[in-house]
Design goal:
It contains 12 helices and 15 strands. By secondary structure, it is of the alpha/beta class. The protein is globular, with a radius of gyration of 21 Å. InterPro entries: Gfo/Idh/MocA-like_OxRdtase_N, Gfo/Idh/MocA_oxidoreduct, GFO_IDH_MocA-like_dom, NAD(P)-bd_dom_sf.
Length: 409
Amino acid sequence: MDDRAQPQDRELRVGVVGVGQRADLATLANLPGVARVVSCADPSPRGQDDARRLFGDGVTVRERYEEMLGDDLDAVFVLTPDDLHTRPALFFLEAGVAVFVEKPLAITLADCDALLAAAHRTRTRLYVGHNLRHLPMLRRVRELIDTGAIGRVRAVWCRHFVGHGGDFYFKDWHAERARTTGLLLQKGAHDLDAIHWLAGGYTRDVVAQGALAVYGDNPRRAGREAAPGQERMPDWFDPEIWPPAKLRDLHPVVDVEDISMMLGRLDNGVLTSYQQCHFTPDYWRNYTVIGDEGRLENFGDGIDGDPATVKVWNRHRSGFRDDADLVVAVPAASEGLHGGADRALVEEFLRFAASGGATETSPVAAREAVAAAASATASLRAHGARVDVPALDPVLVDYFARHQDDPAR
């Protein structure tokens, strides 16, 4: 597929691989005159039934994604569990079909690099669903940085309080290292991409610590597991259970950490910190960005339809003061998950699939988020040893910079 921008002259024919927990995202691609979901593939009966429910009786439903090539697709969403991203994404890249891969890009650095190499070799458009770059709160933070509100960025901190972590990540495949590498990657890659975006650089070395502090001793699910694809988080989610130690029926295998902390040094000298905890009572992200002329911090993130506020302190020194020098209110989104970020993400992908051009997300950035997370996971499992983050092949860096890079870098 030619990377040069071309005008769209017909409705895109879109496919969906994996009709599970995140399949609602692809419903946003049904835009008359722009795109239409015409084909889905899922090996489970529940996924096949959901495909018809979400996309209509007219959608072609298949068991194997390889069969979708006969459906004349222009673009495809790969929304499988994380460890199953690589094969279908490679398959459609080789076929010249524009590919949207849900975040994280893959669970190993080798698979990430294989996907980028395939997109380069075939000149097929590759897009990764890092929706936080479209989150209204973070976009306000980025605008404040770009306008010089805090001077030059010197540090970025993120605390992620994952209040529903036990239900969301410890009752299914997310709890297994073999399927995620770890939650510092599976969950953290999203925030690490945002940290890189705000800081204007990529992590080159890390140290980390972590533990399976709460869910390691919780009772596991008894008996045989449900057939793959037949159980999903809403089937068991109960926000009334407290404290987290009371959770029962966890996944039979739980070997990922439920609390992790990492420190990183970026290629531009910015220092970063990321903390993730899956047993807090609250669920939100708190970013602090420190420059050489001030600092900013968000209160509330707007992801679940709640309002958020970004405060800036940049006029003088003082003790603690709640009355920041600048307060930017981010209204609650009127529609859609993630503060409307999902809709913006899908619309950008459809535009990119149809006509190319720069995007707010970046395959290179997605790879670098996985690289940082995988390296940090290696560090925490080596008792905090310093780990260097492998750099991407310069040929691929140059290719995506010329054809598809984040316009802000």
